[in-house]
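Q: what sequence does this backbone want?
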C-alpha cells in the first residue's frame, strides 16, 4: 500500500515531464480586408493543383508570408464571410454566421439594417468564446489590434469581457482614424478623432505606424506570458489593411515608380507593414526560445478591398471575381497559412512544409476547433460548433470527415444584397432573395472565376444545390431577409 502510494506520488511528480513539452503557444494573425491575391505568395492553384503566380503576386511584397509558407502549409480555398464582424464572431465561436447571427458588420453607433433578431449588439460575456476556453486551460490570452466585436456601450466592445486577459488598442470600431503616430492614431487630429484608436499613448507624436505600435505591444505582452510561465494565445488582429489608405512610409519607396494610383501604392505599403509584423513576431518567439512550440495561423477576414480596378466591375482579387462584400469568390476567399514559428522536434504535431493545399476547403469556423485541439482546451457540450479541426489537413493529408461546403448567408443590403452563397463540392450556388434573377450556378472546377452562369442549363444540379442550401439554412436556424413584416424564405427553382 505504502509502496503504491509512493509510486503514484512519483508518477504524479514526473507526469509534466513525461507529457513532454509545455502546451503550444498560438499566434492567430488576422489581417483586416486582406484577400487571397494581396500577397507575393501564389495562393491559387493551376489545373494540376500546383501553385500559379498571377500579376498581383508580383505587385505585392510579403517576404515573411513567403517564409511562413515555406515552412508551413497554405490553402488555396479558404473561406471567410464577405464582411468583417460575421467572420470575427465565427473565429471566436466556431459557428457559422447564420447560426451566431452576427450576419452584418457591426455599426459602432447604431443598429445596422437587417432582419429582426440579427445580433447587431455583437458578442457578450455569456457567449462561449475561444479565448475564454483557452483561459480555462491555463492560457494567458492577449488581444492586440482591431476588435469590432460589439457597438459602443455594449459589453463586447471591450475584449477583456470576452475572455482576453490583455486588450491592446481594441474597441467597438473597425476602421482606425489614422495609422500615423504623429496623429496619435486619430486622437490628436480633430478630423480623425471619431475613430481615434484607444491606448498606445506612448507612441503619440512619434513616427511609429499603427501596425508597428500594436506589434511592439504584443511582443511586450508575450514577454509577460513567458514571465508568468504560462502558455500564450495572441490574437494579433491588424487594423490594416482597412481604409484609410495611409501610406506606411517605411515601404513607400518600393511602389513609388509604379503607374498604379497613389492609394493603391499606399495599400501595398499597408500590406508590407503587416508582413513585417508577422516576421517580427516569428523572430521574437525565436529569440525567446519558444518558436518550435508556437503555432502561427495567418488568415484574412473577408475578400480584398484593394483600390484597384476595374475588370468585371471589380479587380481587387483578379483573377477571382468580386471583392469584399460581394457574393463571388473574390468576396470570401482569403489567405490562410499555418506553420510552426520554427519547424523542429518540439512541434506538437506535424505540419507539411512548402505545400499548397488544394484538395479540400477550409473555413474561418475551423480556427476555433483547430486551436482547441492544439491546446487541449474543451468545447462545452451544449455549444454547437460548425467548424472542424484542420490538424489532419495541416499535415498535408485529406480529412475524409470534413464537410465539403461553406455557406455565406447575408440577409442585409450592401455591395451584394440579400443573398445566400453555398459552395458545395465543385459547385457554387448564389441565391438572391429579392428581384427576379434569383439563381446563379457555377462549376468552380471548370470555371473558377465564375464567368458562366449555368442556372438555366443545369436545372437538376440547380435544384439539388438549392435543396442543400435550404436544408443548411434550416439546420443553422437562419434569419431570412425581411420584406416589410414578412420573412422571405428561399424557394426551389
Ligand atoms: Ca474586414
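A:
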Amino acid at each position: 500500500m505504502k509502496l503504491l502510494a509512493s509510486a503514484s506520488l512519483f508518477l504524479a511528480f514526473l507526469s509534466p515531464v513525461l507529457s513532454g513539452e509545455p502546451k503550444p503557444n498560438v499566434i492567430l494573425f488576422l489581417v483586416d480586408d486582406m484577400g487571397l491575391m494581396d500577397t507575393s505568395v501564389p495562393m491559387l492553384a493551376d489545373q494540376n493543383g500546383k501553385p500559379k503566380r498571377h500579376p498581383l503576386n508580383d505587385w505585392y511584397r510579403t517576404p515573411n508570408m513567403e517564409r511562413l509558407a515555406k515552412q508551413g502549409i497554405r490553402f488555396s480555398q479558404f473561406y471567410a464571410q464577405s464582411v468583417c464582424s460575421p467572420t470575427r464572431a465565427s473565429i471566436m465561436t466556431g459557428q457559422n454566421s447564420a447560426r451566431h447571427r452576427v450576419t452584418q458588420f457591426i455599426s459602432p453607433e447604431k443598429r445596422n439594417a437587417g432582419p429582426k433578431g440579427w445580433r447587431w449588439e455583437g458578442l457578450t460575456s455569456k457567449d462561449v468564446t475561444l479565448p475564454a476556453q483557452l483561459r480555462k486551460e491555463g492560457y494567458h490570452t492577449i488581444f492586440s489590434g482591431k476588435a469590432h466585436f460589439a457597438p459602443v456601450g455594449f459589453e463586447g466592445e471591450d475584449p477583456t469581457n470576452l475572455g482576453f486577459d490583455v486588450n491592446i488598442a481594441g474597441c467597438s470600431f473597425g476602421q482606425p482614424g489614422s495609422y500615423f503616430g504623429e496623429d496619435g492614431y486619430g486622437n490628436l487630429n480633430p478630423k480623425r478623432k471619431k475613430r481615434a484608436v484607444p491606448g498606445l499613448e506612448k507612441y503619440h507624436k512619434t513616427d511609429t505606424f499603427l501596425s508597428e505600435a500594436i506589434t511592439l505591444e504584443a511582443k511586450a505582452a508575450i514577454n509577460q506570458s513567458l514571465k508568468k510561465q504560462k502558455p500564450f494565445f495572441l490574437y494579433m488582429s491588424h487594423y490594416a489593411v482597412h481604409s484609410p489608405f495611409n501610406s506606411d512610409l517605411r515601404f513607400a519607396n518600393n511602389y513609388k515608380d509604379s503607374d498604379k494610383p497613389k492609394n493603391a501604392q499606399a495599400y501595398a505599403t499597408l500590406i508590407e507593414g503587416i508582413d513585417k509584423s508577422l516576421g517580427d513576431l516569428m523572430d521574437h518567439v525565436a529569440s525567446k526560445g519558444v518558436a518550435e512550440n508556437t503555432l502561427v495561423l495567418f488568415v484574412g477576414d473577408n475578400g480584398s478591398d484593394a483600390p484597384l480596378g476595374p475588370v468585371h466591375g471589380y479587380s481587387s482579387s483578379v483573377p477571382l471575381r468580386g471583392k469584399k462584400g460581394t457574393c463571388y469568390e473574390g468576396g470570401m476567399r482569403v489567405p490562410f497559412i499555418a506553420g510552426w514559428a520554427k519547424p523542429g522536434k518540439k512541434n506538437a504535431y506535424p505540419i507539411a512544409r512548402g505545400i499548397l493545399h488544394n484538395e479540400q476547403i477550409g473555413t474561418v469556423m475551423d480556427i476555433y476547433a483547430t486551436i482547441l485541439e492544439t491546446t487541449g482546451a474543451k468545447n462545452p457540450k451544449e455549444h454547437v460548433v460548425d467548424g472542424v479541426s484542420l490538424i489532419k489537413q495541416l499535415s498535408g493529408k485529406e480529412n475524409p470527415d470534413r464537410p465539403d461546403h461553406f455557406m455565406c448567408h447575408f440577409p442585409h443590403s450592401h455591395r451584394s444584397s440579400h443573398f445566400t452563397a453555398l459552395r458545395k463540392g465543385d459547385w457554387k450556388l448564389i441565391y438572391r432573395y429579392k428581384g427576379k434573377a434569383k439563381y446563379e450556378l457555377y462549376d468552380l472546377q471548370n470555371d473558377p472565376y465564375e464567368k458562366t452562369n449555368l442556372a438555366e442549363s443545369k436545372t437538376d444540379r440547380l435544384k439539388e444545390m438549392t435543396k442543400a442550401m435550404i436544408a443548411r439554412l434550416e439546420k443553422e436556424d437562419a434569419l431570412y431577409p425581411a420584406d416589410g413584416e414578412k420573412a422571405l424564405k428561399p424557394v426551389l427553382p
